[in-house]
């Protein structure tokens, strides 16, 4: 058994902290741990670096990326359906390899300190389970370090593409962890039938749900209403995540408070990418209501967007910008969105800086969370599941 000790680190408040890791678990945290170098003990001198828990990516699409590949020239139309159709056609015509793409981006996430990740994988009647098989291979290849959840996601919709429900059923049987869905009104055009199919599959597999809800205004609120009815009827409290939820950002403060109380009662978590061009769920109101609001990138450098990177401190900065978080203590909230809130939304167990948790640790050169986020401070050391994956700033 090898013991890993981190000495001379600092917490977010600047206080000294040492960490001892055994068997991939944190066994002790204290301002100054007793003991010293010995047989089977590896020590890291943090040199005053800030200690963070492993970063959490709550919403991305590893299978779609062109990260590390030749530049994709985007000439796509501006509507959601344009992007969906363009992507499906390009992937089919180019022979895009989801296994190679997801592995490259997964490794980049690890090098930037992300140790827990939820990725959506396209399931449709053109590609079948090809993309899923590629990402399953990546999950296996990175299993010792990256804790990855896979969402079986019907990007092209369900009701107008016969056979999609069966493919989703098969995906969950083959290893996908979460059932994905999207826009029961705007894409499927029959919200009752769409959500009935979604919840029936989730109930059959006993799995959680993560639905992309891009629908604006009253359309989106109607879809949320139907979801809450089914959550109550099926006892699925705490098993549903709504990604994007642009419609919640359009409500006045009083109405938002009522709706957030309902979401909190149903245990519904929200995930935002903090887009600058769309409304977003109200961050501070969510926190007051007890609604988990986590952060994610969505796509990273793919046919949808040239933007994004596998650096969750950068995404925390985007959250800070979108929600006008300027004080240093307010930026700790942005960090929370890509750490503890992300783990809570996705249901990642044994998380955090505490004895007994999985040893996922990041050491950064910064004086506090605000500097770490705004400067995207270099990751000096990254420990993932007890394994050192970045040593003195170099991925190993």
From TrEMBL:
CDD domains: Bact_CD
SUPFAM superfamilies per the UniProt record, alphabetical: Composite domain of metallo-dependent hydrolases, Metallo-dependent hydrolases
GO molecular function: hydrolase activity, acting on carbon-nitrogen (but not peptide) bonds, in cyclic amidines
Recorded superkingdom: Bacteria
Domain Amidohydrolase: 44-390
Name of the protein: Cytosine deaminase
Organism name: Pandoraea terrigena
